[in-house]
User: Fold these one by one.
Assistant:
Number 1:
Amino acid sequence: VRAEDAAGARQICDDLHAADMADLLQVLPARERRKLLNLIQSDIDPELFHEIEGEARGDLYEITPNTQIADAVTELETDEAVYVLEDLRDEDREEVLRALSADDRVAIEESLSYPEDSAGRLMQRDLIALPEFWTVGQTIDLLRSDDADIPDDFYDIFVVDPAHKPVGTVPLSRVMRNQRGVALGHIMEKKPHVIEATADQEEVAYAFTKYHLISAAVVDESQRLVGVVTVDDIVEVIEEEAQEDILALAGVGESASVNESLFEVTRGRFTWLLVNLATAVLASVVIGLFDAAIEQMVALAVLMPIVASMGGNAGTQTMTVAVRGLATKELSATNAARILKRELMIALGNGVLLAVISGLLAWLWFGSPGLGGVFAAAMIFNLLVAGMFGLLVPMGLARVGIDPAIASSVFVTTITDVIGFFAFLGLAALWLF
Amino acid sequence: VRAEDAAGARQICDDLHAADMADLLQVLPARERRKLLNLIQSDIDPELFHEIEGEARGDLYEITPNTQIADAVTELETDEAVYVLEDLRDEDREEVLRALSADDRVAIEESLSYPEDSAGRLMQRDLIALPEFWTVGQTIDLLRSDDADIPDDFYDIFVVDPAHKPVGTVPLSRVMRNQRGVALGHIMEKKPHVIEATADQEEVAYAFTKYHLISAAVVDESQRLVGVVTVDDIVEVIEEEAQEDILALAGVGESASVNESLFEVTRGRFTWLLVNLATAVLASVVIGLFDAAIEQMVALAVLMPIVASMGGNAGTQTMTVAVRGLATKELSATNAARILKRELMIALGNGVLLAVISGLLAWLWFGSPGLGGVFAAAMIFNLLVAGMFGLLVPMGLARVGIDPAIASSVFVTTITDVIGFFAFLGLAALWLF
C-alpha cells in the first residue's frame, strides 16, 4: 500500500475472502485505510459492504458512490442488504433505494418497516415454499429450473397451506433421501418452529439454540410465511448479545468496539463514571457520619475499604450469575426463592470463613481483639447483604422492564459500599468506644 | 407429579420436545425431579441425555441403568454421544462402552481420545464424502439407498481425493439445483475450510462466525477427513465461551450455572474472594503508611475510597473492552500502540472532567481548596493509570498464555486501588502539611 502499487494491492485484495478483507481494513490506520479503499474502489466485493464494521465501515460508505452501493445491494441477500441500508444516512438510503429494481426495493422497504433488532430485519425473503401434495420429484425439477427467486443457499423447504401459512418443514437432506414419488406432506416435520416477524432477535436466538434449528419460518401478523431466518445470522446475534451483556456489566455501554469513534466512547464511559462518582460520594457521606470514631482510631480508616471491597466483589459474583441466569432463562420467578436460599447459604459459608481470616488479621495487625470482632461481624453481614441484593436487584430490574445487565452493578455496589461502611463503622462506634 | 399420576405425567412428557423436558427437570426442586424421573424412566427420549444439564443431569444418569444409557447413546449422533459419555463416572463409562456395538465403540473412543474442548470432541463421524468424478445423479441415488452410515441431517457433501483428503464442499442446495449429469468436482466450492481435529473449540467457533459456515470438514494430523462439525454445535460453543468470559470477569469461575452443586460453587467463589482479600489488604497497607496524615485530617479518610473506586471502574471499562477485543481478535500486537494512545486520550478526557467536578465537590464539602486540588490531581492520575493498565494487563497475560478474562480484574483493581490511595494520600501529605 505504501508504495501505491495499485495493481499489486488489487491483486492481493482480490484473493482475500471478504471477511479477511474487512479485518485488514479495520486494523489499518485511518490514512492508509482510505488510500487502500481508493485503490481498490472499482472492484469491491459486494460482500465487503456487509462484513465491514466500525470506522472502516463509515469510510467505505463515504468513498463508494451510491450507484455502486445499489449494485452491491442487488447482489446481496435481503437480510444483508437491509443491514447495509440501515446504517446509511437518510438521503443516501433514499438514493440507493431509488436505484434498485422495483422488486428489490419493495422487499427491502418492507424489511426496514420492522423494528430494529426484530426477526423481520434478520430474515431473508427468498425461500422455497411448496404445497403439501408436491412430490420430491416435482420439487427437484423446480429447483433445477432457472428460477431467479431461488436463494443461493437454503437448508429447509417450507410446506405451506393454501393460505400460505407454514404447516411443516422438510430438511434438504430428507428431500434427497426419498424417492421422486413421495409427497412433501408425507416426509415433512410437522409443527414447525414459527417466528413472528416482530419478535426480538434475542428471543429468536434463544429458540435457535434451544431447538438446534438451522433455519426457521418467519410469519407476519396474519400467520402468513414472509421470510426465513438462517442460523448464520443467529450466530452473529448471539455473539452480539453476549458482547452487549459483558460490556454493559462493565459500564462501557453499547459503543464499545475498539473501532468506534473516540468522542462517542468517551461520552459513553463518562456517563457511567459520573453515576459511579455520585454513588461513591453517597458511600463517603456514610463515612463522614463516623469521622469522630475515625479520628479516635485510624485503624478504622485503614480497614474499612476491605469490608466494602469484599462486599462489592461478592455482590458482583452473585449479580453476574443472576444476570446470565435471567438471559438464559435458568432463573425465573418460579425458582427465585430456591436460588435466594442457595445464594444466602453460599454467602454464609464464605462469610464465616473470610470473617475468621480477616478478624484474626485485624487482631494481629492492630493488637485489638475488639477491632477484630467488629471487622469479622461486618464482613459476614456485608457478604449476606451482597448475596441477597446481588440476586434481588437484577430480578427486580428485569421485572420492571429494565435490562439488568446495564443497571444492576451500580445498584449492587452502591448497596454493598454503603452497607459495608455503615456496618463496620457503626459497629465500631457502638462496641469500641 | 404431586398426585403421582404416572400415566398423566408420561403423557405430558411424551408431548414435550427433549429441550423443554430438560428445562422442566432443571427447574423442578430435587425431590420432585427424582420422582418424575422415576415415573418416566422407561421411556426417556435419547435426546434428553444430551439436552439436560447441571444437577438434573447427575440425577438422570444415576437413575438410568447403564444398559439404557447405552441404548440411548446408539441413537445419538457421535458428537452428542461423546458429550454424554464425557461426564459419566469412569466405571459407568466402561460399562456403557462395552454395551455398544463394535463400530459405535471405536468411533466414540476415537473421539474421546482428542483433548477436551477440541474439534475432535465436537465432530460427528457420519458424513457423505465422495470423489470428484461422481455426478449429481449418482449422489442422489446413493443417498436414496438404504445405507446406515448416512447421517440424519447434513448440509454439505464433502469431495475427497483418493487419499481421503477434502478438496471441496458442495452445499446440498447446489446438488439439488444441478442436472443429474454434472460432476461434483464441477460444482464444488474449492479450498474448503478445513479444521484440525486438535483445534480448540474457540478457534473453530471463530472460523464459523467469520466465514458464515454451516458445516466444516475435520481432518486428522495426516490431513485425512475424519468428521464434520456442524453449526448447531458451534452455537452452543459460542454461548458457552461468552458465558465463561462473563463469569470469569466477575470472578465466579467455571462452575457457575444456577444448577451446579452448592459446595463447588462456594469453593469456586471463595478462592476469588480470598485473592481479593489479599489485594485489599495490600491497599490497606498503603493507607496505613499515611495514618498520621489521616489523624490530622479525617476528610482524607472520607474522600479516599472515591479515588480508588473511580479508578477501579475506569480500569474495568478499559479491561473489559480489551478482553473482548482479544477474544474477537480486534485487538492484537499490531494495533496495540494505537489503542493505548486512544485509551489514554479517553482517560485524559474523562479524567479532566471528573477531576473538575470532584475537586469542586471536595472544596465545597470541606472548605479547603488545597484538598480539592489534591483530590482532582489524584483523580486524573488514577484514571490515566487505569486506562494504561486496563489495556496492558490483559495483553500481557494473553502474551504469557494466561486467559485474560480470568486473571485481569484482580491485577487491574489492585493496581488502581494501590495507586489511587497512594496518589491521593501521598499528594495530601506532601502539599497539605
Note: The first helix of chain B runs from residue 6 to 15.
Number 2:
Amino acid sequence: MPKTLIKQGVIVTAADTYQGDILVEDERIVQIGQNLRPERDAEVIDATGCYVFPGAIDEHTHMAMPFNGTVTADWNTETVAAAIGGTTTIVDFAKQEKGDTLAHTAEVWKRRADGRTAIDYSLHVAITDLTDAVLDEIAHIVQSGVATLKLFMAYKGETMVDDATLLTTLQVARDVGALVMVHAENGDAIDILQRQLIAAGKTEPKYHAVSRPIEIEAEATRRAIALAKVADAPIFIVHVSGLDSLEEVRRARAAGQPVFAETCPQYLLLDESYLVLPDFEGAKYVCSPPLRAALNQEKLWHGLANGTLQAIGTDHCSFNFAQQKHLGAHDFRKIPNGVGGIENWIQLLYTYGVKTGRISLNQLVELTSTNPAKYMGLFPKKGTIAVGTDADIVVFDPAVEQTITAANQKQNSDYSVYEGFRIDGAPRHVLLRGKVIVTEGAYVGDLRDGQFVHANPYGAA
Amino acid sequence: MPKTLIKQGVIVTAADTYQGDILVEDERIVQIGQNLRPERDAEVIDATGCYVFPGAIDEHTHMAMPFNGTVTADWNTETVAAAIGGTTTIVDFAKQEKGDTLAHTAEVWKRRADGRTAIDYSLHVAITDLTDAVLDEIAHIVQSGVATLKLFMAYKGETMVDDATLLTTLQVARDVGALVMVHAENGDAIDILQRQLIAAGKTEPKYHAVSRPIEIEAEATRRAIALAKVADAPIFIVHVSGLDSLEEVRRARAAGQPVFAETCPQYLLLDESYLVLPDFEGAKYVCSPPLRAALNQEKLWHGLANGTLQAIGTDHCSFNFAQQKHLGAHDFRKIPNGVGGIENWIQLLYTYGVKTGRISLNQLVELTSTNPAKYMGLFPKKGTIAVGTDADIVVFDPAVEQTITAANQKQNSDYSVYEGFRIDGAPRHVLLRGKVIVTEGAYVGDLRDGQFVHANPYGAA
Amino acid sequence: MPKTLIKQGVIVTAADTYQGDILVEDERIVQIGQNLRPERDAEVIDATGCYVFPGAIDEHTHMAMPFNGTVTADWNTETVAAAIGGTTTIVDFAKQEKGDTLAHTAEVWKRRADGRTAIDYSLHVAITDLTDAVLDEIAHIVQSGVATLKLFMAYKGETMVDDATLLTTLQVARDVGALVMVHAENGDAIDILQRQLIAAGKTEPKYHAVSRPIEIEAEATRRAIALAKVADAPIFIVHVSGLDSLEEVRRARAAGQPVFAETCPQYLLLDESYLVLPDFEGAKYVCSPPLRAALNQEKLWHGLANGTLQAIGTDHCSFNFAQQKHLGAHDFRKIPNGVGGIENWIQLLYTYGVKTGRISLNQLVELTSTNPAKYMGLFPKKGTIAVGTDADIVVFDPAVEQTITAANQKQNSDYSVYEGFRIDGAPRHVLLRGKVIVTEGAYVGDLRDGQFVHANPYGAA
Amino acid sequence: MPKTLIKQGVIVTAADTYQGDILVEDERIVQIGQNLRPERDAEVIDATGCYVFPGAIDEHTHMAMPFNGTVTADWNTETVAAAIGGTTTIVDFAKQEKGDTLAHTAEVWKRRADGRTAIDYSLHVAITDLTDAVLDEIAHIVQSGVATLKLFMAYKGETMVDDATLLTTLQVARDVGALVMVHAENGDAIDILQRQLIAAGKTEPKYHAVSRPIEIEAEATRRAIALAKVADAPIFIVHVSGLDSLEEVRRARAAGQPVFAETCPQYLLLDESYLVLPDFEGAKYVCSPPLRAALNQEKLWHGLANGTLQAIGTDHCSFNFAQQKHLGAHDFRKIPNGVGGIENWIQLLYTYGVKTGRISLNQLVELTSTNPAKYMGLFPKKGTIAVGTDADIVVFDPAVEQTITAANQKQNSDYSVYEGFRIDGAPRHVLLRGKVIVTEGAYVGDLRDGQFVHANPYGAA
Ligand SMILES: [Zn+2]
Ligand SMILES: [Zn+2]
Ligand SMILES: [Zn+2]
Ligand SMILES: [Zn+2]
Ligand SMILES: [Zn+2]
Ligand SMILES: [Zn+2]
Ligand SMILES: [Zn+2]
Ligand SMILES: [Zn+2]
C-alpha cells in the first residue's frame, strides 16, 4: 500500500489538540510530526482547516439482526453510511439463538459481515440462553476475540435473562476478563404493563413509552449494579436514557465501584414529544428504552461532561417506516424497536455537544472513540491517533453546514429521526487502516475492506 | 365488667406526655381526667411513678408457622410472653400454602390462634401463589378484615414471587385498599450464592449472612419501590436491616412517594459479630435479612428519629437452639431463619432508645403502637390512649432494673439473643380491652382473652 | 371562671383523631370523656360535625417591629385576626437594638404586647449585637422564659451576624438550653447583588428575588448546620423556601444531626410569578427569602409529609401596600420585607394540605401546634389537647366555604397575598385558656386576654 | 541546541499508551514515530523499558513564601528536588501584601524565581486585599499571563476574604477569563475554635486539626460553589482533604456546574494519626486543611478515578522541623502550616495509585500534568507529549525501588512526611524544553533554566 501523508490538520485525541502531520504506512500511523516532508511515493491529503479525529467507534450496533419477525438494516448499506459519517469500527451485538453455542453465534455473525462491511467490526455476544455448556464456553469465546457479553433484563419470553443468570455470568466474566453489558429494564413489569395497555385498547406508539417508564429502567440499572457488586465484577450499562438511571450510575461510581455507562444520541437530542406525532409517525421513534421527557437531555449532557457516562453508542437498529414499523400499526408491541443514527452521530454530537460548549472536542473523541475502544478491548489498536495504531482517521471539516434529510441519506431507511436537524461539520476524508474509503465526502471504498477485530479481555490493555 | 380507674400515671401517646387518670369501662377508655374520683364499683390501679402507654402492637410476628420442615414457637406461649412485655396486639403473617385460597389461609391461621392467644391479633396474608383466582380474592379478603398483603422477594422456590406478581398485586391492592408489605431481598442472587458457598464447603452459620449481602437487600428494596411507583400504590418495606436499604427508603420518601418501612430490634441492637460465635452458637442469631456490620445500628436509630422509618416490629420467629437451629448443623441453609424477641422488645427500646436519647418517649409509642396501628388498619381502635379506644394499656414502671436471661423468659425457647442485656423499666400492669392480664409483672390472663381484630383498608381511617 | 363543656366534636391531636367531650375548668382541660354529663354551671359548646383542634401556635411572627424605617402591623389588630383564624399563641421575635441588653429587649417587647394582645404570646430574642456582656446574658434570658435565640445571616449592616457570632452563640445556647434559630441567607452576597442591580437600573420588585437566589439560601443553611455540628448544638432553620435548602436539612437529619426546620404558607401556596404583577403589585409579595419557582411547592409539601420539616410558621410581617410597600417604589431594597398571613393560615393549610391529601389532619395539628410548642419550650402547657393543658381550643367547622379577600380581613392591611383563594373550614369557636374569645366566627375577647408564656429550655420537656 | 532522540520508550499521555520515538528540536517535540532514525547530530536517549511521561506540572506550590513570621523553602533547592522527581513546571502562589498591586505582587515573585529555578513556572496571584483598584487590575494581570486568582476563606485577620470579595472576584474573573481558586475553610469558625482551645491549654499540634474539622471545610466548599453559581463563573477548589468536601464537589458537578477540584498526596497517603506522634513530631504533619481520618483516603482515590477530582497538586509548602515547626512549640497556631512533597509525589502516586490499580497510568498523567496544564492555562504548550509542545519529558524507569528518607532528599528540610515510604519507579532522565536537566537520576541542570510561562485565560485553549 502506498504511504499517505495527512498534512496540516488539527489532530484531536481524547487528551490533545495540536497541529501536526501524520504519516501512514502499512495500515498504521508510523510518524507524527511538524512539517513532515512528503516522501516520493506518498499520497498527500491536505487537512488544512480541518480536525483530524481517530475514526469513531460505535460500540453499540445491531446489523442484520432478526427482531420480532423482521430484520434490521444490513451491513452493506449501514456500514457505508457509517463510513461516510466518520465511523471506522463498529461493535455489533451477535445475538445467541436459543440452544445455540456462543462460538456458532459469533460465526454466524461474522459470516453475515465478512465481505459486506465497509468498516472494521468487533463483536459482543448477547447471551439469551445460559446453559452450563454456554457458561463453560465464555472463557473460550473471550480467547477467540469476543470479550464483551450482553445480557437483557427486558424482552420477557425472548431475550430476557433472570437475575440468577446475570449474577452467574458476571462471576464468570470477572474470572475470564469479559465485560458484561446490560440492557437494564425490568422485563416483568413491562410485560404486565403492555398486556394491560393493549387490553385497554391503548395500542398507539406512545404507549410503548408508557409501558417502559424510567422507574423500571432505573430499578434494573440499580439491580445490575448490585449484582455486579456482589460478583465483584465490572459492568457496563448500555443506553442510559435519563436522569433516574444516570443517578444510579453516579451513586455506584461515587462509591468506587467499576460501573461504566453509555448514552445514545437519541436520548440527548430527541424526546417523548415525538411519540405522539400523528399518522403513526410516532412509531418512527420507538426504541427501547423509549425517548424520555425533554428535561433529561441536559442531565445526560452533564453526565457526559462530568465523567459519569464514559461513552456514546448509537444503538443503531434501523427499520423502515413503510413496512417494518407498520408491523405494529395495531399493536405497539409489534413495532420493531429501534432507530437508526450511525450516519450522522458524530456530526450531531459535534454540533449540539461541542459547538454549544456542553462537551469539549477532546471529550467528543474520548466518548465516541477512545473510551469505546478501551472498554471494548480494542485499544490502542483502535481509538486514538498515535504512532503504531491503526490508521483509522477522519479528516473533519468544521466549516460544512448541512441539514439532515432522509432523502439524502445512505442509511437504508425511508426516514430519519433527525430529519431537519441542522448539522455543522462533515468528514471530508476517511481512512480505514490507511486506505482512503471516503474522499471529499464520497464513499470510495469496497465492502471487502472491513475486517473482524480481535478484542482483548477487559483490563488487559 | 367492672370499671377500672388507673390513677396518677404519666400518660404517653405518640404526641403527648401528661399526668392523668384513666377510666375504663366496657373494654374501652371512657374518660381521662385529673383527679377522677373512683366510682364505687371501680377497681383502682395506682400508676404513680409509672408511664401509661398504649399496649404495644407488634406488626410483624410469625406464630406457629411452618418453616423449613419445622415450626415456630406457638401462640400459647409467645402471646403470654408478649403480654408480660407490654404487647397487647400482634399482626401475624398467615402464609398461603401453594394452591390454597387466601380466605382459607386466614381461616387456618385463626383456628390456630383462637383460644390460644393471650392478646388480640390481626392478620396479614402472605401471598405465595398468585393465580387469577387469588387475584380476584384480594378484594374479598380485605373486606373480611385482612387488609395487608405480604410478598416475599426472597426464598426462591418457596415463597418468592416474581416482579410480575409483585406489580400486579400492588395494582390490585391499590384499588381495594390493601397495603402491600415486602420482604426485600433478591432471592435469585441468594440462591446462587448459597449453592456456591455450600459447594465450597462453607456451611457454617456465618455464611448465611455472606449469602445475603446488604447490596441485594437494598436492590430489592429499590425494586419494590419502583414497582410501587409504577403501580401508584403505597408500599411497606419490612425489616430494613441497614444503611443501604434505609437510603432507598429515604430517597423515595424525599421524592414524595408513599413508602413506609420498619426495622426490628435485632438490627438496632445486635450485629454480625454474633454470627461467628463458636459451638454453632452463631445459628441462634440467624435471621433474614441477616445481622449487619455494627455501624448500621446508629444509622437505623437515626432513621427512626428523623422519620425515615415509621415503625418497629419484632419479626418474632422463634425456634429453639437444641433441636430446631441444629437442623442446619451441617448446612446453614437448613438453619430455621428467625429470632425471638417479643417478650422484651419494649424494654429494650426504652433502655437503648429512649434512655440514651436516640428517640423520645413519644416516638417509642409512635413506633411500636400508634404507627403500627395506623398502617395495619387498626387505628384508632388500637394504638393510642384516648377516649373511645380499646383499653389496651400498659402501666410501665421505669424504675425496674433487670437483665435478660433465657432462664427466666416466658418465650418458649432455650435461649435468648439478648442474653445478658440489661434492661430498664418493666410493665407492672397490662390491660387488654380493660381486662387486667398482667399484674405486678405476672400473667393473670387466659388464653381465651385474645380476639381477632378486623383491619380496615389502607387510607380508610 | 365557669366550667365549659365542649361536646361531640372530633378531637384531633398530632397523634389521634377521636370523638369525645372536653371539660374545661380554671383555664385548663380537666376531663375528656365520652358523653360527659354537663354539670350545672357549665357552659356547653356543641361541636357536632366539627373538629376540635388545639389552638394553633404561630412560632414565627413580627408584630409592631421596626423595619427599614417603618413598622409592621401591631398587636392589637393582628392578634385579633390570629384569634379568629384559630391561633391562640404566637412566638414573636423581639429584636435587639444595637447596644441594648437582651433583658431590656424582651421587656420592650412585652410592654408593646401587654394589654394589646388577644392571645397568648412567647418571645424569641433576635440577637443583632453580640458583645461579651450579651453572651453572658443568654443564660439569664433563658431562665427568664425566653428560650429561643434568633440570628440573621442576612441583612448586612443591619441585623446580620458573622459566623464567629453564630458559632459562639450556638455553643453558649447548647450549654444553657437555648435553641438557636437562623434566618439563612448569605447577606454578603445579597448586598453585592443588590448594589449591582440598582446600579443597573433594575429597581422593580422582582429584582428583590433576583438578589436573593435560592443558592445563597441553601448555602447559608448548610453553613449554619455545619456550625451547629461543630458546636454540638441543635439548630432550627426558619422559613425554608425551596428544594435546595430543604435538601440541606434532609442531609443533616439523615446523618443524625439535630436539625429542625419550618416552612411558611407563602412558600407552599405562592410563587415567583406574583412578583412581576404590574402596577407595582409585585411589591405586595416581597418577603425574604423571596417566593420561588412553583416547582418548589410540591417539594416542600413532601418535606412536611415525610418529616424533613417539623413545623410551619407564618412569618407574619405585615405592611400595607398604599404607604409602606410604596417606600420601595423606586428601589426594591426599600420595600419593607414581609407578608401577612396569620388570619387564614390554618384554613389554607387545611384546604390545600389536608383536603388534597398532602398531609393528614394529625400532621396539620403537629406542624402548626404540637411541634411549635415542643421546639419553642411551650409544651405540654400549649400545643395539644390533653388533660392538664391550657384550654386553648379551636372548634373548627369543616363545612364552611369562604374566599379570602382583603375587604373582609381583620388583619390591618389594605391587601392580602391570598386574595381570591378559596378556603374550606373555619373556626367556629376559639377558647384561650378556657375563655371563649371567638364565637360563631366573631371575636368576643378582650385585648387584655393575652399573656406572656414562659418558655422552657430546649430539651427540658 | 542539538536535537535529541528518545528511543523505544512507552509514551504515556492522558489518553494513550504506546511505544514510539520522540524527536526534540529547538525546545519542542517535532516528531514522534516508530523507529525514527537518529540524525547525525542528535543525542540519543535510550528509553527501553521506561515510560515516557510529559513533565509533571505541580499547580500548587508555595516557594519562598512568608508565613507566620518565617518563610517557606526557597526556589533554588525545591525546584531542583522537583526536577529530580519529574516535575518540570510549577504554578506558584504569589501572595499579595496588603496594599500592594497585583502587578507588583507578580513582579516580586518573578524576581524571587528568576535565575533561581531549575524548572519552568507560572503564577497564580493570591488576592488578600481587594480594593477597587485591584479589582480593575484583574483584567490586566490576566493579560500579563497570570490567569488564576486565589482567594482564602480561612486565615482570619491575615489572608481571609469575606464572601462579598469572593463573589465580586468571581464575577470579574468570569468576565476576563481568570479562574478563581479557593482555599475553602471557614476562617471565622477556626478563629473561635483556636482561641477556645488555647484558652483551655490545648496547645499541642493535634489541636490544629481539632480547630479545623472537616465540616467547616465542606461548608466553605459549598459556599464557594454557591457563590460561583450566582456569579456564573467556573471555580477551582484546592486541596480537598476528605469525603465531606468531595461530596460537595460531586453534587455541584452532577448538577452541571463548572466546578473543578484537586486533592494532594498528603490527603491520599497520610492521616490524622500522625498528628499525635510524641516529641512534638506531630508538628511535622501540620498543614491546612489538616490530615483527616484514614477512611477519607479511599474516598479521595475514588474521586480521582471517577472524575470528581480533576487534578493533584502537592501544596508544597516546606518548613524545617528543628527551627520553623518549633515556632509553635507552645501554641499550635504558631506552627507554620504546610508540608513538603514535590520531590517524590509522582513516584508516590505511581506506587500507591497506579500499581495498586486505583488509577490508570493515563490518569496519573492526566491528574498531574495534562489537567493542571489545561486548568492553569498552560496547555498545550505544557501538559502532554505531542508534536509542537514543549519538550518537557520524563523518562521514568518503573523498575527502580527506593525508600524515602530525609537523609537523601534534595528538598531543603530536615525531615520528610513520607519517611520510610517505599516507592517504585523513578525518573531516569528529565528534559526541560529539550534540555536534559536530569540524567540517570542526577540533576545536571542550571538554576537559570527555568522560565516564566505565560498562562492563557480560562477557556481560551
Ligand atoms: Zn438495548
Ligand atoms: Zn441495542
Ligand atoms: Zn421477612
Ligand atoms: Zn418476618
Ligand atoms: Zn427571616
Ligand atoms: Zn421572620
Ligand atoms: Zn490552602
Ligand atoms: Zn496552598
Note: The domain at 56-375 of chain B is CATH 3.20.20.140 (TIM Barrel).
Number 3:
Amino acid sequence: MKAVILRDLGGPEQYRIGDVDIPSLGEDEVLVRIRAAAFNRRDIFIRKGEYPGIRLPAIPGADGAGEIAAVGKGVKDLAIGDKVVINPALNWGNDERIYTKDFSIVGVPTNGTFAEYINVPRENVFPKPEHLSWEEAAALPLGGLTAYRALLTKGKVKKGEAVLIPGIGGGVATFLLQMAVALGTNVFVTSSSEEKIQKAISLGASGGVNYKEPNWEKQLRKWMPEGADLCIDSVGGDNFVKLLNIAKHGSRIVTFGATACPVPQLVMPKIFLKQIDVIGTTMGSPAEFQSMLSFYDKHKIKPVIDSVFSIEEIREAQLRIEKGVNFGKVVVIMPWHEL
Amino acid sequence: MKAVILRDLGGPEQYRIGDVDIPSLGEDEVLVRIRAAAFNRRDIFIRKGEYPGIRLPAIPGADGAGEIAAVGKGVKDLAIGDKVVINPALNWGNDERIYTKDFSIVGVPTNGTFAEYINVPRENVFPKPEHLSWEEAAALPLGGLTAYRALLTKGKVKKGEAVLIPGIGGGVATFLLQMAVALGTNVFVTSSSEEKIQKAISLGASGGVNYKEPNWEKQLRKWMPEGADLCIDSVGGDNFVKLLNIAKHGSRIVTFGATACPVPQLVMPKIFLKQIDVIGTTMGSPAEFQSMLSFYDKHKIKPVIDSVFSIEEIREAQLRIEKGVNFGKVVVIMPWHEL
C-alpha cells in the first residue's frame, strides 16, 4: 500500500511517499481504508524529533476517517464498508482520570493515518457522524477529544460563563471555541492576527484581542470586569502569568499544551490567594470520545477546516501548521499517487 | 485594656505592650476576653511589611480563644462567660469557592487577638471544643481552617491514599498531618530536621525524608512507587518542580503558600501530560470552620503545641516561627503584665 513514510528526523522533505505492506490484522482489530487524514502539531514535533518514543521509519498521522476494509476474527459488529472515524487514543483503559501505562497515540510508535490502510483496535473506531464530510470527520478526532475533555470534563464549563481561549487558530482552540459557543458561554480569544480574531468572532466569539498590542489585558478586563471563569491554555510561557491576572478569583485554568514553555516565573501566591485551579489535561477517554462525537452530532457542528491538500502536497500542508498560519484543521485527502 | 501594639514595621522589638481603649461594640458583634492566642507565619510577614493592607499602629494576631465579655444589641444567642474560639476569616460571604471583596483576616486591618479584648462579628465565634484547653483551642483556628479546606474540600482526600506534606513542622502542616492520619491515609513528610521527621512519625506519618540529603525523592518513590495521590504544599520554589515529579498521574497538588516563592521554571508539560490538578486555596468558609471544629471534636484530636509563652515573652515566641524551629503552634497566654 501507499503511505507517507518518515525515514529520518528533520524538515518537511523527510516526508516521502512509499510502498509498504498492508498491516496484518490482530484478532480484535479492524483495517480502515483511509479517506481523509489531518495534521496535528504533534506530527511536527515528531518529525523534528521533539517527542518521546519515536521509532523510525514511521507512518505519521493521528487523525483519520475511512471505511472498514477488513475485520479481525474477534470482531462481529462491524462490516466491510462501514464508515468510521478513528479514536487516536490507544489503550486508555478504564480510569476516566488517567490512561494506562500502555497508552499511546496513533502515529507513534504504531503506524499512523497518512496511509492507504491502518489497523487499529476495534474499540478505537466509531461510526462517522452523518452530517460530516470525510474531510470534516478526519479533522475531528484528536483535537475534538482534547477540547471536549478540557472544556467539559476538566473545565466543567457552565452556560453564561466567561471563557478565555488564548492563541485562537490551532485545531484544539477552534474546537474549544465551537463547543463553548454552543454551550452558551461568552468566549474571548487572543491572537497575533486580526484575521484570526475576525474569524473567531464570525464563529461566535464575543471578542478578541491582539496580544501584540499593548494593553491587551486591559481590553479583556473591560469585557470581563471580574475576570475569566475559565481559561483554556496551550501557550504557557509568559502568557501563563498573564492568565493568572485575568483569571477570576475561584476560577479554573485548564492547560493542555505549552508552545511557549517553560513558564519563566510562576507566581504561586496568585494561584493560592485567588484560589485558582490549574488543571492539566491531555487527550481523553473512550467515553469522552463518544460524548464528543455525540456533541458534534447533536449541535450539528462542523469542524473548522483551514485547508485541504492532496496527499502529494503533504509537505506544503504541514507548513501551514508549522508556520502557525492555519485557522482550523489542515486536512489531507486520498487517493494515492506518487509524490 | 492591655494589648500588643505594632507601631512600626521591623524586627521583633516592634512588638510593644501598651494600653488602648476597649473596642466599642457593633450591634452584631461580640467582645471576647482573650485567654490564649497563637502565632501564624502571617504575623511575621505583617511585622516585616510583607503583607497587603497593613495600617499602623495595629494589634496583631489572628488566632484566639476566650470568653464572651459583652454582646451587641442584635446578639441574642450568646451570654457573658460563654467559651468561644474565633474564626479569623471575616466576611467570607456565601460562596464556598471564594470570599467576598470585603474579606479580611483578623489582625490586619482590624484589631487582632494579642490583646485583652477583641470585638468580632457574632458569626465569627464558635463554641470552644470541650476536649481542648485554652491553649489548644487558640492554636486551632487559622491553621486548622486552612488545612481542612486544603485537605478535604480542595484535596478531596480519600482513605488509603498516599499524601505528601512537604516541610512538616509549621502549624498548617501539622494540622494536615493529624487530619490525614485520622482519615486513614498514608502520610509522608519532608523536613530538613531529623527531629521533626521523628515527631511526624510519632503522630502517625508513615515516613519522612530529609530534603537536605541527596536522593530524597528516590526514597519517597520507594514508599510511593506510583507517586503521591495528593501533595499539599506551602513551600513552592524549586521544591514545586520536584513535587510534579513525585505526583502520580492524575493526582492533585494543593498549594496554600510559597515560602520559597517564586517557582523558577514550572514545566507545564508535567502538569498536562501527567494530568495533574494544581489547586490553589487560602483560608476557608464559615461552613468549613464549623466542619473543622467538628472533625477535631469527633476524632478527639488535640492541636500540636510547639511551645507556650506568656504574653510578656511575645518577642521570643515569634522567633520560633521566624527561625522555623517550631513543630506545631506557638501559643501565647494571658493574663496581662507590663513588658
Note: The longest strand of chain A covers residues 29-38.
